[in-house]
Amino acid sequence: MSTFGTLFRVTTYGESHCASVGAIIDGCPPGMPLTNEDIQPQMTRRRPGQSNLTTPRNEADAVQIQSGVEAGVTLGTPIGLLVRNKDQRPHDYTETDHYPRPSHADWTYLLKYGLKASSGGGRSSARETIGRVAAGTIAERYLKLAYGVEIVAFVSSVGKVHMPESSTDSDLLSEDYLKLLSTITREKVDENTIRCPHAETAQAMEERIMAAKARNDSIGGTVTCVIRRSPVGLGEPVFDKLEAKLAHAMLSIPATKGFEIGSGFKGTEVPGSEHNDAFVKKADGSLGTKTNRSGGIQGGITNGEDIYFKIAFKSPATISQEQATAKYDGESGVLATRGRHDPCVVPRAVPIVEAMAALVIMDAALIQNARQTAASLLPPLETPLPPSMSLPPKKVEEKMVKEIVQEQQA
Amino acid sequence: MSTFGTLFRVTTYGESHCASVGAIIDGCPPGMPLTNEDIQPQMTRRRPGQSNLTTPRNEADAVQIQSGVEAGVTLGTPIGLLVRNKDQRPHDYTETDHYPRPSHADWTYLLKYGLKASSGGGRSSARETIGRVAAGTIAERYLKLAYGVEIVAFVSSVGKVHMPESSTDSDLLSEDYLKLLSTITREKVDENTIRCPHAETAQAMEERIMAAKARNDSIGGTVTCVIRRSPVGLGEPVFDKLEAKLAHAMLSIPATKGFEIGSGFKGTEVPGSEHNDAFVKKADGSLGTKTNRSGGIQGGITNGEDIYFKIAFKSPATISQEQATAKYDGESGVLATRGRHDPCVVPRAVPIVEAMAALVIMDAALIQNARQTAASLLPPLETPLPPSMSLPPKKVEEKMVKEIVQEQQA
Amino acid sequence: MSTFGTLFRVTTYGESHCASVGAIIDGCPPGMPLTNEDIQPQMTRRRPGQSNLTTPRNEADAVQIQSGVEAGVTLGTPIGLLVRNKDQRPHDYTETDHYPRPSHADWTYLLKYGLKASSGGGRSSARETIGRVAAGTIAERYLKLAYGVEIVAFVSSVGKVHMPESSTDSDLLSEDYLKLLSTITREKVDENTIRCPHAETAQAMEERIMAAKARNDSIGGTVTCVIRRSPVGLGEPVFDKLEAKLAHAMLSIPATKGFEIGSGFKGTEVPGSEHNDAFVKKADGSLGTKTNRSGGIQGGITNGEDIYFKIAFKSPATISQEQATAKYDGESGVLATRGRHDPCVVPRAVPIVEAMAALVIMDAALIQNARQTAASLLPPLETPLPPSMSLPPKKVEEKMVKEIVQEQQA
Amino acid sequence: MSTFGTLFRVTTYGESHCASVGAIIDGCPPGMPLTNEDIQPQMTRRRPGQSNLTTPRNEADAVQIQSGVEAGVTLGTPIGLLVRNKDQRPHDYTETDHYPRPSHADWTYLLKYGLKASSGGGRSSARETIGRVAAGTIAERYLKLAYGVEIVAFVSSVGKVHMPESSTDSDLLSEDYLKLLSTITREKVDENTIRCPHAETAQAMEERIMAAKARNDSIGGTVTCVIRRSPVGLGEPVFDKLEAKLAHAMLSIPATKGFEIGSGFKGTEVPGSEHNDAFVKKADGSLGTKTNRSGGIQGGITNGEDIYFKIAFKSPATISQEQATAKYDGESGVLATRGRHDPCVVPRAVPIVEAMAALVIMDAALIQNARQTAASLLPPLETPLPPSMSLPPKKVEEKMVKEIVQEQQA
Fold it and tell me: CB burial class (10 A; 0-12, 13-18, 19+) of residue A200?
């Protein structure tokens, strides 16, 4: 359906040529400062045509909060918001409409609904992602204010051009790469239009995209995202493990084909003895892990280390090249889609990935808040827990579970 | 939470040393023949120690249906089922319990809940998957009876030993591999204990596992799954695209680190012109795709082609090697886990992947049934739809949308 | 939360002084004709000030569909809709704002959220019901087109002025009253401004309201609603029995204090021997009940008889009389709310009740569609069911379960 | 479906003649002492045949916790529990099985599912309520330990025999009755087998029931329930107002026909000037209401006053009297149900009502915990809120919103 989340619940509407696209965000905590201007930057980062325009189109995709905010502060009630569509005319029927576009949703929408929007695959339009980005930005704002959470995504590959991630002698991510994950900022990411923070690679990626464009072709890529300073304890065993919710969120973004967290697919090739994240006492006395192959999640629950993951985006299906295919009626033919198309979408996918990540963390944090507060209201146990169910009885450092949890909430 | 699905809803309970593990399956269609014996085979395939035991432990993990079935037929009411735990004693506290096990859930359960089961990460136990397999087997039985759906998973890699998937000159899956996907059976998969249908690779995989075992180490791998004859039109835009639900389901299985569908991560490197799945008229007159890089899903909706995907399982965290790590109190030390451990879990993961796949398809099919039936009850439109929203007006073959859909339901 | 329903899912937003109020309706079947004009009549019936204005304010509360509809036909995707608020200025702070209004939500919103909208109880505003009515009207339109469902509500009491429901010698509803339920239309209901179909009673009700108005006081009442031609088999045991969903829906309407279905509270006083609804063969050969004390629902499931229920609305809390109460700071004082207030809301509640009834039936019908279609796709049982689980083996009339169900869907 | 709740989620299974009935409770806070013995007393109160047996059947309906508890303490993971059915034989087919029992669910289950359990309406069996009572008892235990919540239900009428609730000159509840609500205990309720705390009325009720029994007839009644010391701020606008959730919960209990909260149906007859609950400063400095016609809820949100409501239970459908009715095939006939039947169920309904009340409050408290904790983590606003959105600027007593909320959680 068009709803995501349990306690922080986002519902979106809208397709390409309707009056507006929008969203209702239900469950935003009350008392948070929020204006249209707080949402707009990520909306603008999501917009098409950014890299080719020197003048920013400030007027475009302007978000309008409808409800749930008064005097610039959230009320705790649903936040309605919308963005007007400029082109609200239904799509004109042309010769190309005899063809379901290959690897598009024209045909599957027709199969599912028995009819389709004139523009094709209805809600599979990129315009649908506007509501996600707006909602995710609100979630992110809360997480930043309450916990100092930082979410940064960037382009990690375009076609076969990959950022350097591992050293030559290992399948695991290099120290340098993990350091980049722990420090990367959106400002750094936006230094080039590709949104790849490795300048050399960004240059090669740009060339790869230009080559695709020159051939009226397209090319895919991957986006990597890191979530820093996430509260611990997020994720709900067993079906709503945090990585499961992240995978769900990411694979719901149009054109995605894969997701991996932590060491991912490469990690399957590394023996357990190398792959395990040994524990270590941190500078502040708390327990952490020496390495972070787990990607900040163990047993489906966040452990306080950086959460990082990668998403695969296929090459865009819309290309201006002629394609041999068949019409709806099965007759063979050649389809040539007119107009200018984006040869590579991964740079624009960056804020969408960040938005979906924020929605997952926000919802999980609210659910964990409920449990943690509930547990804290119980009177102390009369019989202490056996040591196997609690912390070992001796030599317990001050900086342990309770303190970590309390710090998260301070 | 411990519930999965909307209309076909599975809720599970149980950890390692409690009285039983079990599940409630709500939403199973009435009128389906079902006995304990229909569920048992997949339960048995999931059991540990299969390959080393010549005598099958028939008595073990025996599933007991509690409700929802009478005279061997489902009533449409919730099916309760349980499997007794043999060892119900709480875990004895030993020296090793001073240590949170590296890359296990001991520490994160403690962070999340403030206490933990004596056996460690509670619900992160492999025993938790029993309920999933039982529930998935019921879903699969329905899908087989109603639609002829076939779900087959197999081991596609162990460590660096991979089944041959592509030819040397392409990043895309080879014709041979796609043919294997379209024909592979569980019988074929079970011909060797590794559950890899490529005999040569299976041999190399077994050697790889033995090597890990010899070093008291462990090794990961991947499982590939194909769903054939899925109904068309499944998957709910925008947040519950079918691939998003599959990713959610798969990443909820313990020890998973990645998911890719269709061409997956490799597909991001192939230009759109090669990657697009052109349409073609099939032998029966219906519309299909010439290739299937999409993996049977476009715009989040099934198109009737084979659905196939791959899941990454990390190397098991439990190894008998000594590990330098820290205790709960932060003190450094060396942990040596005693006992015999499974050096590689992917063969046993095969029925779990199949079960979760069945749960996703089943739930999506019920939701699509609701919509399709509802749409079919509307009177015909007085004004016909414009051609851009429907099928083109001329030369429409008989074998079109409506017929395909009806056939699915015949 | 602000979402209602499982497969036909309505999410609303908006309070008194924000930019707009609106809703997203997710799960409307595709292929249904729908325009703003189809929704407007119930919106207009809901509007305040109808009875005092000779000129209808056609421009007011104009609903604007934003998405999910093209060429006047639903696409199956979410329908966004909104109604602009005319007065979008935040409420000016005055002396009366020192007081939480008695029996209003000012105080509880402050307790719940820690702050409140300047207009008082935020979403407890009557304006919130606009989204419900719009959504319910769409549901009702579908139910009418697909099944011929008829939903009619009316005012059954104002203060102590009640419509005649029972004869003097019985606590059960009279034949006359049940006949009225089976024939009443909205046109008939709207013949007077009170919306009570019993002319004499309507006159007395109007006098009762005028008396309240003259004293700057207010008065409550009840609304009765009947749903005719509902599909059979609706309602989900055990927690989502149809009457439970109806009660939930009705008690979510502002100012409601009670709900009763069928014979209701009075029925508790009648012995089982009189209260039971005996079965009888109907003219068309199908099985029906001779009486209908159950109100069309048995065991939580609709049986095809008329569904009827009554809802209690308390006397409006806003009155112009001076009220001795306390300020937020606990200081005693006298609150005099200025302005003109509606002394009785039940006439305007009529379309809101109808809307919520439609939402419940629509969602239940979609869920039952899913099950029924799924069951119909199973192959016939090899061993026939024992007679205790099916229809008796002999003398089964043609017009039985299957036919009734099929007829519902024809 | 068979699931109730969002964060405290109960799923039940089981019908009359299956192996067991049971439930999974997901979301119970960790760290709460819990044993089978804590659950058993309410199970025993629910059991049939209590009043006629001098020897308590201790062995009957013995609940067995399966999971989620170790060392007598909840782990925070799902609690599986079950109660064995003694009679697991399928129902023998007899002459009476040709008849759908009037006002039972036999016929509607057949309509809904196309088949039915041999015992009749499957899940509509009273045995289904076992899972609810077990789950509700766990919720209640938490609420008692964490907040001191007290939930007490009692029988308020049997047939036309009603407890005195109002004085003769008013439709509103009397001071005496409200005092009874604020002090009544389960011990007091259980002083007689009718579970009516007004001894004289209890005597008359018993006679009424004996009269029904003598005629092989049955009689209905009402149960009233009070929830004391509920946390403030519970209930989710707009569709999940607390009274809406309570109504849903109560109308999901078998045989219920009505629900009213606070002043209820009678309150609709009282003018607003009398009905409004004026505010008053309480002894402890906090704000309360002078009267409590609202029943502890305003705008769908709890205000800290007693929550009280009444539920209508129809006369049991199963009677030994001969009933003229029709067979499944439409043929007229006379049905005589053999065996001994309970002529009045309201005394046994008392613990079921208490259980459902606890489930509603528990779930609402967890959801409110999530919001409140989230709001508390936000940094203070830079610009203070306008007075219309907050507490008035002057003369604010110390004992205000924040303190009340904190106290609830202290």
Answer: exposed
